[in-house]
Amino acid sequence: MKVHNFFAGPAILPQEVLVEASSSALRYQNGLSLMEMSHRSKPIADVFEEAESLIAELLGIGDEHKVLFLTGGASSQFYMIPMNILGADQTAGYIDTGTWSTKAIKEAKLFGKVEVLASSKDKNFTYIPKDYLIPDHLRYLHITSNNTIVGTQMSKFDKVNVPLVCDMSSDIFSRAFDASQFDVIYAGAQKNLGPSGVTLAIVKKDVVGKMERDIPTMLNYETHIKKDSMFNTPPTFPVYVCLLTLRWLKANGGVAGMEKRNQAKADLLYGEIDRNPLFYGTTAVEDRSKMNVCFLLNDDQHNDAFLAMATEANCVGIKGHRSVGGFRASTYNAMDINSVQVLVDVMKRFEEKYG
Amino acid sequence: MKVHNFFAGPAILPQEVLVEASSSALRYQNGLSLMEMSHRSKPIADVFEEAESLIAELLGIGDEHKVLFLTGGASSQFYMIPMNILGADQTAGYIDTGTWSTKAIKEAKLFGKVEVLASSKDKNFTYIPKDYLIPDHLRYLHITSNNTIVGTQMSKFDKVNVPLVCDMSSDIFSRAFDASQFDVIYAGAQKNLGPSGVTLAIVKKDVVGKMERDIPTMLNYETHIKKDSMFNTPPTFPVYVCLLTLRWLKANGGVAGMEKRNQAKADLLYGEIDRNPLFYGTTAVEDRSKMNVCFLLNDDQHNDAFLAMATEANCVGIKGHRSVGGFRASTYNAMDINSVQVLVDVMKRFEEKYG
Fold this sequence. Notes:
By secondary structure, chain A is α/β, with parallel strands linked by helices. Chain A has helices spanning about 15-25, 40-60, 75-85, 100-110, 220-225, 235-250, 255-275, 305-310, 335-355; strands at about 5, 65-70, 90-95, 115-120, 140-145, 145, 150-155, 165, 180-190, 200-205, 280, 290-295, 315, 325-330.
């Protein structure tokens, strides 16, 4: 019986990706497992080259940017970005939209000046701040495109007067956007791109190599740009699974195809949340995430009953983040709308029983 | 036809590990791929807990040390160690035994004072320096137990008068040793422990949290000790494959069993190198690595012919590192002695033809 995987990350991957990853874990080229092959061998070099060029193609990235496969998660980019591009006397602007941006702000303060231009902390991060002023003197403006915990998302990226840096961990490849105005785009792979263990960083080439501070070799973007993410032994199998996912993405309409697919799933699930008198959404309607749909029961004494009913229908991972409670259904690229329909049907049956 | 995998890393893994990893990449518990499961779910938490406790058991580590699963490779430990435990006014001693220790020395200088107590650079790192003085004032002494590129190995760890820090990337779990005198033991996983993408660090708990410098959250050992390697999303699948390898290790006699197995393979291969008049070993006999067996042809015009003959016998990965040339046969734990015999047979046939 099919399992409907609503985990927030590590998260659902396309079935055909899993089949091929499983096969290559046992036998790839030359009769060896992909995991047993030197990162300097041609088959693995080919994996990295194709993954890099597919990302550039899917996002419409040109020669000004370099695609890097790093490790340490988005959490490591929180400090690597200011370490590499924020001088001690320079100022970075941050928009505080939740747990992840709060952590990014903390790390940036170790390296330069930080101005928090806007925050939605006053309402537990349930909306995206708008209409803030962006001073011209900022080295960069840091934003977090999607908040996995509360379920908010920036619906678009406005053209701004300073370079942008964006944590897109949970919504990269879920929609079309213009990458050209970003100095750095970064994302942990474990939502729309692949399994955990690899971190994507897309870095504008002309912003690196200008710091006077001492940067450890492995933390300098320049090191990885020069060596095409192969300065040291990279996480070969996770990058390979990313490649398989990127191929699937391309074959399924690219980011435009994903945007359409994700919009349909969001419409279906938010539609039921708004219609069903037993549930309500927790975020500002215009800032609702199309990746992480968070909702509550009006009567939270029935939480366990709803969870049990969802579990019986083979829906897993819908418990809300421990810091906010309630429910969260993550509906990343790989999720089919039929799985969302199964959850919606559970909500309808729940209404019949408890309404 | 069986492939004999002599790659230096990523390297050979036990066949039963690959079979189980392949199966779990498709379906693990709950009908989901292991790669699709939240790191906060019980099955993944169980993987980390068992892997940590198996490492402690296999190495005989007690409560004074903590086993961590990190990322960024041994190359990232080169700077993380001095960042975490070497004060700006303190001095660390380093033994320079090749490319990896040279890199470690470079990073340490960013954080404190470094004294290179001994070096084998005068002979291209083909031996392990001995009989050097270790000043009492050292914060720690850093050693590299095995040099993958040239093929030298420290045959044992002498008791010394200062805390030890050791890069064991290429020979951890290959033999028995006393872990108690080490402040930090670290290793990229991709030799004897698992696939690339995870870095093992074994840290003495009482050495952390004492620095006055600002350390980014993700680079502070304390962060990962407190959160049992789950502060952020860890590389779940690579750690799982490590767990499978650790189970295999335990079932095959633990580190004592591996030591015996590796000694037999080394005896066989070095025996042929010493017997066969066409080949010679490149390192001091007493410092020969049991993990990476490096050798040359007396007549290097026949290099391609030997490589072709080895390739025909399904031996892969025996080309020497680009910086030293010749041949390198890596014979990590998972390699069966029969594969070494196949290579030895090729050397004998080569002698018949070209001798």
